[in-house]
Amino acid sequence: LRQSRHQRELEAAKAAHAAQAVLSLEKARLTQALAGGKVGYWHWDLKSDKLFVSEHWASMLGFTLAEIKDDPDDWFTRVHPYYLGDLRQALAAHLYGNTPQFECDYRIQHRDGTYLWALVRGAAERDEQGRPVAIAGVQSDVSELVNTEARIINEALNDKLTGLPNRRAFMVRLERAVERLRSNSGTLFAVVFLDLDRFKIINDSMGHLVGDQL
After folding, report:
1. What is the pLDDT tens value at each position of the chain, 214 positions in all?
2. Whether the Cβ atoms of residue 73 and residue 167 lie closer than 8 Å to each other
3. Among 75, 76, 100, 203, whose CB has the most other CB atoms within 10 angstroms?
4. Residues 107 and 79: beta-carbon distance below 8 Å
């Protein structure tokens, strides 16, 4: 019986050690993922009103962890004023239980004064009465993705040479003008067409580079 009990204790210790090893491996993988993916972790204790962020969260904004205060206002004061209302509204909606998770994309100020695009996600921890006691999540730097999308849209609707709206953009705006005219007969609009006569002579005689400059 003693040997059987000892065997069980030994197996339990091995299982606990294996579980700890798996946990350590998962934490290492998470740390690596956060570092490589421009993602930072944050945790807001609502009872003490203290905000804790990870080193990656701070470095994303160009700061060291020691330079970030545990006051939540230190986070909100960095948010671009145009997006602060959206961030607070999304946060309140989740804390009041109106949304399954907290999610918002907004702009936040870097140490150098520029603003980067961030996507923040989180979920609240609630007590037995369903009241939120804490909320935690991750924040990602999505500036590259947003800038790429903006560039694609810009290239799709603007002429590469002049930067002016192209034919596709013109048609979109014309359709909107027609729709406004249909909904309001008092709306007026006009289309103006300009052309350069004999422009082909410039390209043929002086080259396309000069034509582009013209």
Report:
1. 555 666 666 665 665 565 555 545 544 554 554 555 578 999 999 999 999 999 999 999 999 999 999 999 999 999 999 999 999 999 999 999 999 999 999 999 999 999 999 999 999 999 999 999 999 999 999 998 888 888 888 888 888 888 889 998 899 899 999 988 888 878 888 999 988 899 899 989 999 999 899 8
2. no
3. 75
4. yes
End-to-end CA distance of the chain: 98
Question: Among 168, 142, 175, which Cα is nearest to 153's?
Answer: 168
DSSP-assigned beta bridge partners for residue 211: none
Contact call for residues 36 and 29 (beta carbons, < 8 A)? no
Burial of 167 (0-12, 13-18, 19+ CB in 10 A): exposed
C-alpha triplet 48, 111, 85: angle, nearest 5° = 55
pTM: 0.61
32-53 burial: b if 16+ Cβ within 10 Å, else e: eebeeebbbbbebbeeeeebeb
The Cα–Cα gap between 47 and 210 comes to 68
Strands 102-109 and 115-126: antiparallel
Q: Which residues pair with 108 in a beta bridge?
A: 79, 116
Residue type at 3?
Answer: Q
